[in-house]
Design goal:
With 439 residues, this protein is of the alpha+beta class. The chain is 65% helix and 10% strand. Strands 3-4-5-7-6 form a 5-stranded mixed sheet. Strands 1-2 form a two-stranded antiparallel ribbon.
Amino acid sequence: MAYGVVDPREERAHWCPAVLRAPFAARTWRETGYVLLNLPMCLIGFVWTVVAFSLGAGLLVTFVGLPVLALALAGCRAVGYVERARARGLLRMEVDEPRPVHARKSGLFARLGAQLGSGVNWRHALYCLLFFPWGIATFVVTLTFLAYGWGLLTYPLWRWVFPVCFGQNGIQVYGDGHGHGWVLHTPLDMLLCVAAGGATVLLTPWLVRGMGHVGRLLVGGLLGPSRLDTRVTELESDRGVVVDTAAADLRRIERDLHDGAQARLVALAMDLGLAREKLLEDPRAGAAMVEEAHGEVKIALQELRDLARGIHPAILTDRGLGPALSAVAARCTVPVTVTVDLPGRPVPAMEGIAYFTVSELLQNVSKHSGAARAAVDVWQVEDRLMLTVQDDGRGGASTAAGSGLAGLAERLDAVDGVLAVDSPVGGPTRVSAELPWRA
């Protein structure tokens, strides 16, 4: 669920203080429109909910009651749809649409049961009931402050209406019917009216924004997806990332085998076949060819070791994260200081993810940073595995779409991890990762 409360363009530096600009700001008038529209919307939602549910409850003695209740909930969902659209347009708020209700089985009773058993539907109904008093209160308060604020502020401009139309000098604050009272008509009265009106006008935008914030809480809490639905959506997205990553890794392994070790072994087999034929004709030349083949075998073995290390390094399994990261740092093109302070070993999955995260970050340091030195720190905080990779390079790294760090951030997010990048142009760069410990 995302909340886009303020347009950054409206919060830029300005020569005029915000308190004086607020009554004329676009945000104020948008949110004022939202609050004033609360009255018709709360009336529609409340009347529909009370009438439809009362009718459905009264008809429960017959079969007709269940479809009427389901229809009542559907109407509440429709009100919720309009309310989310209204919040998007006027409050600049983004709230995810709740999941539609699907019956696990076919048939009328299954569909009715799914509608009546949906917690999302009942939260929409609760919103229609709670929104009724809140909508009336916000409408009345906002309209009162607007009318009195602007009315008093501009009172000197329209005071002439009273002598012309009502036969008195101005607004009568009080009177006893015997000629004694207070009528606002003197210059001091005008000054007091303008001062009170100006203060009310300046206060109104902040009052409206406060009521708008409560509206965001109501919409987000009752009309958005539940925490369970949000979590299910996140897990589905994470599952897609994991599947895509696994498929990409399998393709990489297949490509490395096909283009590397497999091609070299095929060439080696051909060379050995030629050497076998050559040994009968020219033993010395045949021996030289066997020697060359022996060198090719060593290269092929090294490629297979590198490939196996890329899948899961043996040193990580045997000795843990500290020695494995030290081995990665030794292959980096810049000097790297490794500090690992862990009370034990996390689960192998998290240990492997931490290893490959540091490995990829150090590859970025070697290829792109232009750094003279780097440092790796790994430690545990409560139930989280923390790691940072720092370098003194040129900076400018980001998790923008399409970058390697963006893919790394997605992979960490798939396991409830977090990646944070602090890399101003000119450096230094600090990339922090946080993973579940799950020991």
